[in-house]
Amino acid sequence: MATILICTTGLFGILNASLEVARRLEADGHDVQMAAPRDRKAIVEKAGYQFHCLPEINTTPTPPVKVKGGKWTQWQERIVKAGQRRQFALESTRPTAFIDLMDQLRPDLCLIDVELHEYTFAAHGRHQPYLLLSQWYSLWDRPGLPYQLDAAMPGDGFGGSIFGMRLNWLKVKAKRKLIFTRQRLLSLRTDRRSTLLALADEYGFPRSWIAKNFWPGPFTYTGPRVLAMAPLELEFPHEPPPWLTYVGPMVRTDRPEQAASSLNKYTYANILEVKNRNAAKLIICTVSTLSAGAEHFLIKLCRAVADRPDWMLVVATGGKVAIDQLPVAKNVFPFDFLPQLKYLQVADLSINHGGIHTIHECIEFGVPMLVYSGKRSDQPGCAARVHYHGLGMMADKDVDTSAEIAQKIEMLLTEDAFQQKVIDTKRKTDLYRKNKVLENIISKKLDQSRPAKTGSKISDDA
Question: Which DSSP string do the residues of 284-303 spell out, in sequence order?
Fold first, then answer.
């Protein structure tokens, strides 16, 4: 039995995925503990694991200018004390509490969120065996792979052409380079990226393993092994980088969920009874991360189903749109919050924002998708993958009319190819669990790393 410490940002998506990782590793005979720079003690300990709360990550290490005066006076202060300010920024970034935790637990292996750069550098510098966890599809620029934040699909129009994808990558790189350069110059190298690079040097983390990143955060890696909690089968056709391994989706099907909240006091039993009585198709819409235009889109959606008694729409607004502002219809059941996993088990269609964890949950329960991307972070890229692989359709919340929404719903509910594709994908993703892909990688890493526990430096394939 090995002691494994899982460190994530504590954001709910990757937290739930990492709890599924913990469940599988515990079932494989390991002692698993968890840590995060957010207080998730109640959730983690309810799941049965010890939790260590770490200090919040300092994402703005640039120290304030304390001298009073105009801009020129403040710039003089920055220049004269540039060295002191860089040292202050470095000290405020150093993950002392994480280092203390490693010393206390002496884990055989750390699984570290790919966004937690401070922890990664510290683990490497202390010869602590580690692997990185990613909750996304590929973040790297690879031939045939569109930028993750773009809705382009290979082979679809100019954006999906080889030249179009290459051009978009070049634009993204130029924009990011401009951002990083500006931050470095204006802060005199006390910005987050510059400070993290200094921290990497301090811990002996090879610069050759660090690459400029295009999302998320200041950079990604080309050396340490990264475990993507996603299925390769949902990627666009390309050759993954050698340091990236897909371990399949991590869906925690037994997680506690927030109780449904509705002004009209609907219950799960009520809705299920109506569905069975009318032989209606149940559509669930969970778009809690939509922001701009959310109300307008939900109004269009409600109108799209209002005159279809053979459809039922259960919609969760995430509390961002007042339920009483939505059109009234007998077959529309609005909620502020909804236990998504519970309803996916009886749903015929999911309308969602393209969040990667929701997509994986839909596959887990065999539900086709109509994805109206929230157009935030990786949602466009995830939506494009759903469409490309035939698990559903990708659409534009700002463009589609009620009639066009209804047309897409009709197609997804009546054409068996979508349902069959989800079922086929589910069979493939089940193989990751059945074949213990994650557990085997961890076991191999533990076998390779045991000499490092005696003080020798970890190998370069860490």
Answer: EEE-TT--TTHHHHHHHHHH
